[in-house]
Amino acid sequence: TFNIKLNGTDITGLTSIVPSTAGSYTAATALNVVARGDQITIVADGTLVLVLDLGLTLDYTMQL
């Protein structure tokens, strides 16, 4: 599994995501404010992790 973090903090709803060869969509379950310069990281969980051809797309909504 893996987690998505924003500036080192887990994004609510984007933790313990299970990779799938069929693809999947997982939505954050809380509001997250992302600013220019913030760091979004993917953190793999487990003692042995082998990830091949990992594709990740982030969708976002802007509020003006």
Topology:
Layout: E1 2-6, E2 9-10, E3 40-44
Antiparallel strand pairs: 1-2, 1-3
Explain briefly what this protein structure is:
This protein is an all-beta fold and about 60 residues long. The protein has strands at about 1-5, 10, 40-45.
Task: For this entry, give a set of tags.
64 residues; 3 strands; three-stranded antiparallel β-sheet; globular
3D structure, described in words:
The structure is a single chain. The chain is mainly β and 64 residues long. The chain contains no helices and 3 strands. A 3-stranded antiparallel β-sheet has the order 2-1-3, with no helix packed on it. A hairpin with a 2-residue loop joins strand 1 and strand 2. The protein is globular, with a radius of gyration of 13 Å. The mean pLDDT is 80.
* Global structural class: mainly beta
What topology, given as strand order, has the largest sheet? 2-1-3
Describe the main β-sheet briefly: 3 strands, antiparallel
Poorly predicted tracts of residues: none
General shape: globular
- Helix tally equals 0
Using the CA coordinates, give the radius of gyration.
Answer: 13 Å
Order of helices and strands: EEE
Strand content: 15-25%
Spatial gap, N to C terminus: 34 Å
Number of β-strand runs: 3
Estimate the helix proportion, in percent.
under 10%
Mean pLDDT: 80
